Amino acid sequence: MNNTQDKNDVLLDVEDLEVEFHTGAGVVRAVDGTSFKVHRGEFLSIVGESGCGKSVTALSLMRLLPRKTAAVKAKKIIFDGIDLATLPESEMRELRGRHISMIFQEPMTSLNPVLTIGDQITEPLITHLKMSQKEADLRAIELINMVGIPDPERRITQYPHQFSGGMRQRAMIAIGLACEPKLIIADEPTTALDVTIQAQILELLKDISERLGIAVILITHNLGVVAAYADRVNVMYAARIIERGSSSNIFGAPAHPYTVGLMRSVPRLDKPRVGRLATIEGMPPNLLAPPQGCRFRDRCPIADEKCQESPPTTTAPGTVQDHTVACWKNEFAKENAPTLYGSETAIEKEKSAHGEKVLLNVSGLKQYFNISIREGLKSHKVDIRAVDDMSFNVREGETVGLVGESGCGKTSAGRAILHLDNPTAGNIEFDGNLLNVGNIAAVRRDMQVIFQDPFSSLNPRMKVGQILEEPLKVHKLRDGKSARLDRVAELLTQVGLYPYMADRYPHELSGGQRQRVGIARALALEPKLIICDEPVSALDVSVQAQIINLLEDLQNDLGLAYVFIAHDLAVVRHISHRVIVMYLGKVMEVGEGNTLYDNPQHPYTRALLDAAPVPDPEIERSRQRTILEGDIPSPLNPPSGCVFSTRCPLVTDECKSMVPELDDFAPGHGVACIKIGAS
Amino acid sequence: MLRYTAQRLLLVIPTLIAVAILVFFLVRVLPGDPVEVKLIGEFGDVNPELIYKERKRLGLEDPLHIQFVNFMVGLPQGDMGISLVTERPLTEEIGARITISIELAFFATLLSVIIAFPLGTAAALYRGTWFDYVIRIITIGGLAVPSFWFGMLIIMALLATVGKLPSLDTAGLFEDPMANLYTLFWPALSVGYRYSSVIARMLRSSILEVLAEDYIRTARAKGLYERIVIVKHGMRNALLPTVTVVGLEFAFLIGGLVVTEQVFNINGIGKMFVEAVQFNDMTMLQGLVLIVATSFVLINLLVDLLYAALDPRIRYQA
Question: How much is the pTM?
C-alpha cells in the first residue's frame, strides 16, 4: 500500500492558513499563513516549541477551536478533494472521526470518565457507519485487540479509570482508528507518558499507519520522536512554518538558524558530551505584537538588516527536492551549522572535575508511605515502598543524576534527603553530620532544592525580591535591608536576570526566567548541595539548554554539588558525573555517566535507553530496539523478587523469588541483577 | 453497585441512632416546662404540687436515663411517645398531618428541578448573552428572597389579580389531582424558588466547566452530533455536582416549609412545628425533628446512590 504512487498523491493541501484569537489583550494570530501538504499514508511531523501554533493548526483543521474566540481563514484546505475551508459545519461533522480523526495529549482527561471504553469506541461507528450496537461492539473488540490491549471482551465493559495511562492512549488510538480514517492527527500523543510507554505507543501508530495506509500528522516538541518516526518534517516558529523537508534533510542539513539551534540545544543520549549546549538566547516573540520581518530575528546569531523584511520561502541550497526554508541567510546558516552558536572548546568539553571528599552519604534509605485503602466498610493500611534500601554518595562539586520513570522513587528520595518527608529508615550523612529531625534545620542552609514547576513553586503574591530576601532574613545572613537588597541584586545577576526584576511578580516572568528565580532562591544561602528535582522538564528545549548551562556554570564557579533528578536520559547524561537508575523504589544500576550509557548492563537500563529516541534519523533507522511490554506495576502491589521481573526480557523463575543485590559489575559500576555477573 | 447500595443502607442505621440521641438531649435542654405552660393555660395560676403530679403522670419526673431508654426502645417499634399536649400518640398526630407536607416537599422539589434544568442548561449554552443575564438575575433573586416573604408576595399578587386564594380545603391527591396540585402550586413555588435557583446556578457552572473538558473535545473530534456531545457527554458529568447540591439544599426546603405552611395556612407538619414550640410540647418537637432529620438522611442516601449510578468511579472504589 505504501508505494511511490500513493506517496505522491496529496491527501491534504493547506494553503495560507490563518488563525486569530480575539482576546481581552488584543488579537493573537496563532497561525500566520502556513501552507503544507500531507501525502497519503505518510508520517508527517509538525515540530516546534510551546506557543508556536502547532496544536492550533491541528485543531483548526478539525474545526475544533472555540468558535466564539477563534477565527480561522485559509485560501484552501483541500482534504481528499473537498475544500474544508468552505464546508458547512454539518458536512464537517460527518468528516470528523470518519475520515480525519484526532488523538490528544492527555489520555487521562481525553476520555469521558462516566462512559465505558466500549461505548466510547462504538460511538463513531454508530454515528458514521450506521452500525447496530451489536456490530459496533464486535468491531470495538477487534479494534481493542488491534491496539494491543489484552482481554478485549472484558476491557470494553470497563471505564477509563480502570485503565493505565498507556492503555488509555491505546484506547484513544482505537477510537481514532474505528472508522478507518484517511488521516490521523496525533497532538503530542506521548508527552504525558513514560519513555518505555511512549515507545510502545509510537511503534503502534507507525505500524498502523503503514499497515492500513493511514496518513499521520504527528505534532510534537520532541526532536527524537520526530527523527525516529517522521517521513517529513515541518518546523514551526512563532506561528509560521520556517523550514520543511524530509526527515533526513531537516536533521542532516538544517538550513534555518532556528532549526540548527533547536538541534544543537538538545543533549544527545547516544554520544558523550561534546561541550556546553548551544543556546538560542531570549524568548519567542509575543504574538500579540510580533516583530516585523523574520520573527526569529531577535534571537538569531546571524541576523542583519535584510531580516527586517519577511523572508520568502525558498528551496534550501544544494538539496534535493522539497526542502524549503524561510530565511534570507539560509545558505550561510546551512554551511556554518556547526559553529553558528559558538564553537566548542577543549575546556568546555569535559565536565568540571569534582572533589574527592564525600559531601552526602546516603545508606539504606527507605521511604515508605503508609496509606489506607478502603475496601467496603473496612480499610486496611498498606506501605508504599517509594524508596527501598537506597545507598549512594555525592562528592563535593559532583553531579549525581537520578533517573527513572514515574513512580520509581526519584523524587521521594530527594525529599527524604532534605527531610521534607522524614525518611522511614536509613542514615543520611551530610558534611560529616548524621541528619535527623532535630538538626535538619541547621543543615538546611547548606542543602537547597530547586523544584520542577517554576509556575507553582514560587508564591504568586510575593515579588521576586521578597522571595529572594526571605531566606536571607530567616537565616540572618545579611544585616539590614540595604545589605540584603544588594545581595538580591547580586543573585539575580548571577542567574542571568537583571536587578530591576526584583520588583516583578512571578507571573510577569517567563517560564525560564521563573526557573532562574528558583535557582537564585536556592543559591541565596550559599549551599554546598542542591537537589534539583526535574528542574528543566517543564521548559522548552531552547530554554532548557540555557538552564542546564547555568547550572553547570554555577557548579564551576561555586563548587556546588548536585543531585539531579530527571526522567530525561539525555539531559542526565549531559550534566551528570555519575548516574543512578531507579525502578519502583529500587536502584537498578549505578555508574559513571559515559560508562553507564555506553555499556549499560541492567536489562532495565538497556530498555530505557532503547526506548528513548535519538534526534538523528540515520541512527534511528538502523537501531535495533527491544521495546518493553506491559505497564509499570502499581507501587501498591510491586512484584515479588526483582521488581523488574514482570517486564524483563531475561526473566527466569529465580528472579521472581530473589531480590537482587546491587553488586559491583566493575569498580564504580553497580548492577542489581542476578543475570549479570561481575566481569 | 448492589454491594455499594447495601453498604450505604447499612451506614444509615448508625446515623439515625446518633440523630435520635442528639434530638433527645437537645429537646431536654430547652428552657420552660411544658406541663406548667399547659396548666397555666387551662387554670391560670397553678400550684407546684399539681405540676409535680402532672409531670409524674406523664413520666417527666423519671430519671433521665429511664426516659432515654424508654424513648430509644420505643423507636424501633414505631412508638415515638405521646404528645404532652393532646396526649395522643405522636405517630397518630404526625401521621394525620404529614401527607400534605410530604406532598408539598415533593411537589416543590419536582417543580424546582423542572424549572432549574432548562434554565441552568440554557444559561450555560448561551453564556454571556442577555438570556444568561436575565436568568442570572432571576436566580440571584431566588437566593436573596426569603420564602415566606415570597409567599406573601404571591398571596398579594393573587388577591390583586384573581381576587381570591386557592381553597384551603385540600382535596386528596388521588381524589382530585388537578385541584390538589393547584392548591399546592403556589406554596410549592414559594418554597421551591430558592431550591430551583441554587440548582440552576450549580448546573450552569458545572455545564460550563464540563464543556471545557478534554473529553468533550474528544467527543466532537469523533464527529458526534452536537446534541449528543452536550447531553450524553456533557450533562451526565455536569449532573454530578448538581445532584449533591440537590441533597444538601433539601434542608433549606424543610426550613422553608415551616414558614410557608404558616403563610399559606397549610395544616402540615411545618405548622405543627410552630405549635409544638409554642406549647413547649417537648415530645412532639422531638418526634418532628427526628422525622425531618430522617428524611434528610434518606434524601442524601438517595443522592449518594444516584451519584454512584452516574459515576462509575464511585461504584468501583467501594
Answer: 0.86
